[in-house]
């Protein structure tokens, strides 16, 4: 080939490449995680667009790119014909990006087509031989390929992706709240995601056509254009939560397409940037996105008023009973299975296209239906949210899971319907008062099992609940022909003992009867007024929707289509601030008012990000201290209730909750200096002749009733136990060492005499001076512990940095107990108090300690015969490890490192969610 010919091919290639480059830039997007990806199908369509006016002999630009890319370097026939490119387009585009398009035939020869992307580095090096003068080819290809193969969402997807880019244009975290109790700590995080239509498979587009929306889209070239996308819900589990993810995925698959259930789309494993240059592994469940949950409806909508609105509301609530009946018996491959949802609650009742649906079967279980059984079939389940669970869960704190039948779900549904009736009759304020009423009654009961809100007293429905229902019947509107009948059903057939409780099918039949027996009422309200009310309601629904989702609709810039908010209306003309504040409040939309209005926002808008809560754990009160350190409570010394008993004679408006003032180390030291000293002169200590020395406070602190209770609690907590202090003396603790030393002084001083064979102190740094120790003895002194702290103090010199790894020393201490347990001598139980900042720089894996503690807890259960499963023929001599408390651990945190705080909180809260319900660190 002549130089002129080669030059011609070079010019044609450059022209074609510049067109490709422009198309690539136009179709490049930045994901919600900050990663760049390309809409490859759009690039291909543009490159293959036919042009009848072409005079260069090529069918299209893609043909020209492939042909000239080869001939600018070689006069021989191309090693790949144009019809072969179709299977290797993404490979070819990646090679174009790195300047090596003529090597595409090597991928063909090794069978590595576009479906193989992303190709791992080992595979690349084994199968592709780049030119010797092409520097770092494999690394360049590996890095650039990801932009061309983002994850594509498909109906029924179940796939693991290695480093593939998650194609979310937007990813907004949902923060579920309930009764102003704050966000729950969940097994997984929930997100609203938006995905461009090009990255949604055809079957999923058809199945979820209502999830489609129009919005503005922009490439990295800065040009804006209208585009189509889809909104879904994404439930994201961290990799160590695989068991929870697996269980929920299995239940969602089995219950998919059942009437009244949130639709399951699929699952995938992915890696997302961690913000520090690495990638974090996640398991993801893709779900239908809801508008809002039932609690959001209560909070953001006024209750229904007219006959039609109230009828519409109860009709949607009956959908939940229908959904429950639908899933209670499921046929899979010709075999009938019984299902227990296990977590019916307002947060798991979601609004989708004017219908309520059930969500979150994370606590669900399935069992094959046993034919010919004379009594209802039962299964073992830990239960979901305690507020809505039946009485069998009152104080089920050990690992013996209760056996329940399917009507346990009906009890929970009865609780939800009770709240719904309160909302219809009294509105949002009524729901808040009802909640306070139940909590007030529960707080007065000594055997409440640390539960602060239920609908029962441990064996039957609370009398206050049935009394409240009587009050609701008297307060119903004349337009309400339904709520009283629903309350009758709840009292007689739902919130009753198991043998008398209806099935979900019977509840459905009763709803149908109620609707049949309720005659429509004529209205004298003029049509014009109804139309105005509906218009205002629709505008407020649209406004609430946009505020909740955080995204404006495409036409939201058009003033003609905007809802008229309070700011856009004429001035109220008020001279009084109170009236102005009242008139400028947001109007709450009314439930069911816009349901049947043609073209209403209810029918046209897409779901909000309020998808509902995931967690089944109860919201708890926490006592906040006045200063660092941050202390996590222990399982061997449960704190007293944070609320005093409330007299039943108090009215709701006069109820006030008082918390016991937190006791700080300085307060304890003051008391110790008053009562915890004695003259103990020693020839070895000159100071002992000048001032009294610290002595045991055992039995001396009972100057008040409160202190007497605390002293008795300390006596019970430390009785027949070894007290062990484990001190983090890594370099990050240096700024806190003086504070830690002071706390050790107070703790040891206060604990003198409670461990009759003496306390122990250890340090995390394996190279700590061996003289930093205290001999076990009943005659220990505070000074010995202070000397150990002085010797073990972390060095401030940068060259001697010590990174804390908490596990080895903790494991050694616990192993002292486990080894002794297997001997003939019964070991003393241990209380381990760990002083740390929680940073633990020496731990490479965030969850190393979680894994170790779960393994250790399983080992302790086995050593004590606390068995989760008793095999046939095995003696059932089971012991409750929660009552034995062989080893208890308390972390005391120094400093304000948020990641460390989250880690310690996780160790406290999440071991329960990983199958260790009896654990509290």
TrEMBL record:
Instruction: Note the Gene3D superfamilies from the entry.
Output: Transferase(Phosphotransferase) domain 1 (1.10.510.10)
Q: Please name one Pfam family that this protein belongs to.
A: Pkinase
Instruction: List, for all copies, the residue spans of the domain called VWFA.
Output: 722-907
Name any Gene Ontology BP term: fatty acid biosynthetic process
Q: Which reaction does it catalyse?
A: L-threonyl-[protein] + ATP = O-phospho-L-threonyl-[protein] + ADP + H(+); L-seryl-[protein] + ATP = O-phospho-L-seryl-[protein] + ADP + H(+)
Which superkingdom? Eukaryota
Q: What is its EC number?
A: 2.7.11.1
One Gene Ontology MF term: protein serine/threonine kinase activity
**PROSITE patterns in UniProt:** PROTEIN_KINASE_DOM, VWFA
Q: Which InterPro entries match?
A: Kinase-like_dom_sf (IPR011009), NEK_Ser/Thr_kinase (IPR050660), Prot_kinase_dom (IPR000719), VWF_A (IPR002035)
Q: What are the boundaries of the region Disordered?
A: 554-655
> What are the protein's UniProt keywords?
ATP-binding, Kinase, Nucleotide-binding, Serine/threonine-protein kinase, Transferase
* Top EC category: transferase
**Compositionally biased region (Polar residues):** 591-629
Q: Does the keyword Transferase apply?
A: yes
Domain spans labelled Protein kinase: 194-515
Any idea what this protein is called?
non-specific serine/threonine protein kinase
Query: Species name for this entry?
Result: Colletotrichum fructicola (strain Nara gc5)
**Lineage, uppermost ranks:** Eukaryota, Fungi, Dikarya, Ascomycota, Pezizomycotina
């Amino acid at each position: 080939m002549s130089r002129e010919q080669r030059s011609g091919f070079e010019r044609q290639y450059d022209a074609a490449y510049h067109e490709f480059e422009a198309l690539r830039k136009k179709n490049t997007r930045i994901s919600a995680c900050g990663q760049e990806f390309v809409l490859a199908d759009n690039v291909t369509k543009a490159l293959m667009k036919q042009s009848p006016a072409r005079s260069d002999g090529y069918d299209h630009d893609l043909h020209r790119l492939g042909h000239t890319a080869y001939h600018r370097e070689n006069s021989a026939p191309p090693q790949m014909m144009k019809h072969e490119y179709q299977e290797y387009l993404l490979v070819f585009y990646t090679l174009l990006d790195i300047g090596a398009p003529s090597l595409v035939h090597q991928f063909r020869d090794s069978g590595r087509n576009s479906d193989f992307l992303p190709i791992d580095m080992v595979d690349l090096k084994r199968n592709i031989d780049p030119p010797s003068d092409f520097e770092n080819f494999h690394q360049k290809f590996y890095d650039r390929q990801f932009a061309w193969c983002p994850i594509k969402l498909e109906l029924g997807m179940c796939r693991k992706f290695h480093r593939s880019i998650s194609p979310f244009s937007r990813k907004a975290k949902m923060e579920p709240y309930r009764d102003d109790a704050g966000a729950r700590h969940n097994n997984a995080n929930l997100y609203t995601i938006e995905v461009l239509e090009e990255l949604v498979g055809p079957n999923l587009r058809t199945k979820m056509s209502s999830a489609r929306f129009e919005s503005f889209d922009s490439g990295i070239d800065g040009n804006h254009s209208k585009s189509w996308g889809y909104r879904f819900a994404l439930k994201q589990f961290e990799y160590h939560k695989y068991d929870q993810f697996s269980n929920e995925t299995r239940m969602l698959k089995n219950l998919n397409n059942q009437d009244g259930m949130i639709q399951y789309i699929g699952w995938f494993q992915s890696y997302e940037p961690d913000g520090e240059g690495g990638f974090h592994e996640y398991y993801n469940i893709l779900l239908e996105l809801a508008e809002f949950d039932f609690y959001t409806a209560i909070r953001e909508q006024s209750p229904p008023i007219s006959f039609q609105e109230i009828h519409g509301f109860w009709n949607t609530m009956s959908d939940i009973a229908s959904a429950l009946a639908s899933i209670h018996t499921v046929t899979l491959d010709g075999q009938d299975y019984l299902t227990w949802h296990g977590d019916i609650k307002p947060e798991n009742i979601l609004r989708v296209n004017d219908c309520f649906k059930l969500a979150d079967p994370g606590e669900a279980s399935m069992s094959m239906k046993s034919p010919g059984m004379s009594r209802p079939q039962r299964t073992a389940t830990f239960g979901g949210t305690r507020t809505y669970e039946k009485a069998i869960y009152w104080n089920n704190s050990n690992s013996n899971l209760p056996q329940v039948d399917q009507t346990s779900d009906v009890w929970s549904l009865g609780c939800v319907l009770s709240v719904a009736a309160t909302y219809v009759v009294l509105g949002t304020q009524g729901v808040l008062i009802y909640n306070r009423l139940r909590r007030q009654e529960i707080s007065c009961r000594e055997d409440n099992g640390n539960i602060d809100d239920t609908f029962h007293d441990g064996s039957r429905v609370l009398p206050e609940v049935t009394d409240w229902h009587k009050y609701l019947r008297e307060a119903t509107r004349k337009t309400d022909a339904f709520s009283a009948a629903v309350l009758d059903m709840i009292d007689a057939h739902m919130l009753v003992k198991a043998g008398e409780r209806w099935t979900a099918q019977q509840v459905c039949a009763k709803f149908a009867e109620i609707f049949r027996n309720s005659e429509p009422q004529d209205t004298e309200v003029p049509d014009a007024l109804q139309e105005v009310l509906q218009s205002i309601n629709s505008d407020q629904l649209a406004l609430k929707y946009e505020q909740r989702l955080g995204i404006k609709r495409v036409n939201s810039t058009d003033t003609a289509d905007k809802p008229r908010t309070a700011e856009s209306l004429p001035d109220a003309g008020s001279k009084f601030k109170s009236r102005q504040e009242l008139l400028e409040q947001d109007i709450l939309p009314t439930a069911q008012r816009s349901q049947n209005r043609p073209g209403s926002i209810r029918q046209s808008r897409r779901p909000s990000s309020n998808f509902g809560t995931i967690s089944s754990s109860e919201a708890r009160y926490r006592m906040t201290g006045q200063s660092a350190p941050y202390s996590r409570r222990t399982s061997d010394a449960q704190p007293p209730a944070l609320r005093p008993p409330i007299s039943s004679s108090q009215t709701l408006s006069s109820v006030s909750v008082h918390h016991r003032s937190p006791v700080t180390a300085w307060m304890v030291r003051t008391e110790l200096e008053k009562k915890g000293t004695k003259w103990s002169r020693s020839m070895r200590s000159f100071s002992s002749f000048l001032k009294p020395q610290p002595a045991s406070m055992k039995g001396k602190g009972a100057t008040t009733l409160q202190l007497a209770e605390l002293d008795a609690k300390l006596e019970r907590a430390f009785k027949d136990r070894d007290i062990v202090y484990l001190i983090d003396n890594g370099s990050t603790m240096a700024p806190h060492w003086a504070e830690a030393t002071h706390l050790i002084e107070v703790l040891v001083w206060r604990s003198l005499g409670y461990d009759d064979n003496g306390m122990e102190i250890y340090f995390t740094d394996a190279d700590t001076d061996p003289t930093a120790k205290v001999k076990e003895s009943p005659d220990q002194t505070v000074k010995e512990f202070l000397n150990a702290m002085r010797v073990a103090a972390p060095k401030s010199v940068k060259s001697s940095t010590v990174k804390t790894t908490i596990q080895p020393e903790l494991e050694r201490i616990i192993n002292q107990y486990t080894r002794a347990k297997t001997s003939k001598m019964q070991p003393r139980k241990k209380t381990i108090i760990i002083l740390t900042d929680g940073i633990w720089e020496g731990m490479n894996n965030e969850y190393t300690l979680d894994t170790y503690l779960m393994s250790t807890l399983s080992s302790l259960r086995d050593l004590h015969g606390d068995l989760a499963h008793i095999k046939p023929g095995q003696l059932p001599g089971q012991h409750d490890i929660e009552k034995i408390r062989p080893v208890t651990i308390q972390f005391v945190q120094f400093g304000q490192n948020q990641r460390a705080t989250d880690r310690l909180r996780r160790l406290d809260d999440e071991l329960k969610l990983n199958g260790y319900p009896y654990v509290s660190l």
